[in-house]
Amino acid sequence: MKEAYLYKKLSNKKVQCLNCAHCCIIPPNKHGICGVRENQNGKLYSLVYGKAVALNIDPIEKKPFFHFLPGSQSLSIATVGCNFKCLNCQNYNISQMPQLFGRIEGQDISPKEIVNIALKNKLPSISYTYTEPAIFSEYALDTMKLAKKANLKNNWVSNGFWSKELFDLIHPYLDAANIDLKGFSDDFYIKYCSGRLQPVLDTLKRIKQKKIWVEVTTLVIPSLNDDEKTFKGIANFIKKELGTETPWHISQFCGAISWKLKNLPDTPAGTLKRAYEIGKKVSLKYIYTGNIPGLETEDTYCPKCGAKMINRFGYSITRYDKNGKCSRCGANLNIID
Ligand code: SF4
Ligand code: SF4
Predict the structure, then answer these.
(1) Ligand 2 nearest-atom number relative to CA 259
(2) What is the pLDDT of residues 255-291, one digit of tens each?
(3) Rounded CA gap, 35 and 17, in Å?
(4) Which amino acids bring their CB within 6 angstroms of ligand 1?
(5) What angle do helix axes 269-281 and 228-237 make, rounded to 10 degrees?
(6) Which residue lies with its CA nearest to atom 4 of ligand 1?
(7) Rounded CA separation 65/55 (Å)
(8) Could you tell me the distance, in angstroms and rounded to a whole number, from the CA of residue 47 to the centre of ligand 1?
(9) How far apart are the CA of 177 and the centre of ligand 1, in A?
(10) Which ligand ends up closest to the CA of 158?
(11) What whole-number distance in Å separates Cα of residue 168 and Cα of residue 5?
(12) Ligand 2 center to residue 17 CA distance, Å?
């Protein structure tokens, strides 16, 4: 347990958490929406500090990051809890554990131990992922600070529903982020995620302003967010606010492994292709279909001459570029090695 870094005390021993955009007001002995922050006698505590529910070594492509340390492995950690309740969640057994099962699980492991594991395994980065890093921000931040000192990179895989205060706290230690842009309307975010759109857009803009590498992911769910308006809205936002060099991952939804959408079919490859073409039309340089290995739309092509520069099959890659430049025409491929 750790006293929260971002909150304010209110009257009658209530507190307001300033960690994510929900800004929960929490009476004594109650939790915030994420279920992992508790008001104890007028002080707010994180209940997941030092409690890793997942600690794995993953290919960075799994996050997905396609332009950040491509081909590397990353130490990936999570605690239980999330500030969203996405009906499509594939990790609901850990993201919703406090609410569903009334408990918080995880092995005790300190920030220092996490960094040592990364160093021992010669991993260049630590990924804060699987659930929502914003809700374990104290644990993540303390780890990120030590990781930086040890010359490791930090990346967050996140729903982006952060407060400005959280962004200000973590950005000096953040090297890359993959942010879900799950839909492009408040309606979608409210109905299917228990969130809102605008704070996510604000986070993306802030990340870009600080020149932190960002990739965007959209999980395309049949009948919920597979319409042209959504695809165009997201593609145009990326172009206008983040730049055409920002990778957009368009991923296939799989009903069978979702939390509450088991009745919906898997996303057809043709739908992902439709989104891909819309992205191309607004001149995004790097668009990737995901979760269907073998499609040519998961490879990286030179934005100038069109030559294939990274071949992918699932998480394994073959590179043909020269130090992040096209080996045919020399154009920059926006790769961070
Ligand atoms: S992290 Fe977000 S959801 Fe959790 S208590 Fe704080 S404001 Fe509420
Ligand atoms: S934001 Fe991610 S972890 Fe949280 S509920 Fe949604 S899909 Fe699950």
Answers:
(1) 8
(2) 999 999 999 999 999 999 999 999 999 999 999 999 9
(3) 12
(4) 17, 19-20, 22-24, 32-34, 37, 83, 135
(5) 40
(6) 34
(7) 18
(8) 12
(9) 20
(10) 2
(11) 12
(12) 20
Q: For ligand 1, atom 7, name the residue with the nearest CA.
A: 23
Q: Ligand 2, atom 7: nearest CA belongs to which residue?
A: 89
Q: Residues in the chain, how many?
A: 337
> What's the pLDDT score for residue 332?
98
Is 218 exposed, middle or buried, given 0-12, 13-18 or 19+ CB atoms closer than 10 A? Answer: buried
Cα–Cα distance measured from residue 281 to residue 162, given in angstroms and rounded to the nearest whole number: 31
Q: Which two tokens stand for residue 65?
A: 């990051």
- Tokens describing residue 215: 């990739």
Distances (CA, A) of 8 to 12, 44, 181: 13, 9, 29
Half-sphere exposure of 255 (CA within 13 A, CB side): 11
Overall pTM > 0.85: yes
**Residue entry with tokens 């960094």:** 115
For residue 57, how far is its CA from the centre of ligand 1 (angstroms)? Answer: 28
Q: How far is the CA of 305 from the centre of ligand 2 (A)?
A: 38
Cα 304 to ligand 1 centre (Å): 44
Q: Side chain identity at 309, as an amino acid letter? A: M
The contacts of residue 270 (CB under 8 Å, 6+ apart) are: none
pLDDT of residue 137: 98
* Diameter of the chain measured on Cα atoms: 67
Q: What is the pLDDT of residue 314?
A: 86
Tokens of 267: 């996303």
Nearest CA to ligand 1 atom 5: 32
Structure-token pair, residue 276: 């891909």
Best residue for ligand 1 mutational test, from 19, 25, 85 (most atoms within 8 Å of Cβ): 19
Q: Which residues of the chain have pLDDT under 70?
A: none
The first and second tokens of residue 265, run together, are 């079919």
10 CA distance to ligand 1 middle (Å): 16
Structure tokens at 97: 């554990």
Q: How many CA atoms lie within 13 A of 151 on its CB side?
A: 2
Pairing relationship of beta strands 107-108 and 125-128 according to DSSP bridges: unpaired
